[in-house]
Write a structure and sequence with these properties.
There is one protein chain. By secondary structure, the chain is α+β, with helices and mostly antiparallel strands. It folds into 2 domains: 30 residues; 88 residues, OB fold (Dihydrolipoamide Acetyltransferase, E2P) (Beta Barrel). The chain is 24% helix and 31% strand. It contains 2 helices and 5 strands. The chain has a 5-stranded mixed beta barrel. Strand 1 and strand 2 form a beta hairpin. The radius of gyration is 25 Å and the shape is elongated.
Length: 135
């Protein structure tokens, strides 16, 4: 009986060691559970033109000001400023109840998305109406 208990303990120790080792491997692979990228402060970013955004690297965080001309369907819109137009993607929840018309001057911030086979677009994280500066 004593010998049997010894084997059971040895077996449990081996299983526990393997399990603990796999947990360490899992925890190194998946660091942390919930990670939501905190939105950068808007004031710390320079407002860029559509032209400059189109020439930015993939995943660059940009802030643009201009107008949303029209919906392209499926949460895609055409955004324009004095330098040109660019396709933007705004999830419905990002509007947060805000209604935007084509003549509303807006500020958008988000990431440049350079698709491998598609044109460059902006994945909008924040949108707000702003007053246009008077000259």
């Amino acid at each position: 009986m004593k010998k049997m208990t010894k084997y059971k303990l040895s077996f449990l120790l081996v299983v526990a060691t393997c399990f603990a080792g796999s947990q360490v491997a899992v925890s190194k692979k998946y660091k942390g559970g919930f990670k939501e990228i905190k939105e950068p402060e808007m004031e710390s970013f320079e407002i860029v033109s559509v032209e400059k955004a189109k020439n930015s690297k993939d995943d660059t965080y940009v802030v643009l000001q201009g107008y949303i001309d029209r919906s392209l369907g499926d949460e895609k819109y055409l955004f324009r400023d004095e330098t040109g137009t660019i396709k933007i993607e705004i999830e419905d929840k990002k509007f947060r109840g805000l209604t935007v018309y084509p003549d509303d001057f807006v500020q958008i911030s988000g990431e440049v998305d350079k698709g491998w086979l598609s044109e460059t677009e902006i994945e909008v994280k924040n949108i707000s109406k702003i007053q246009q500066a008077k000259d």
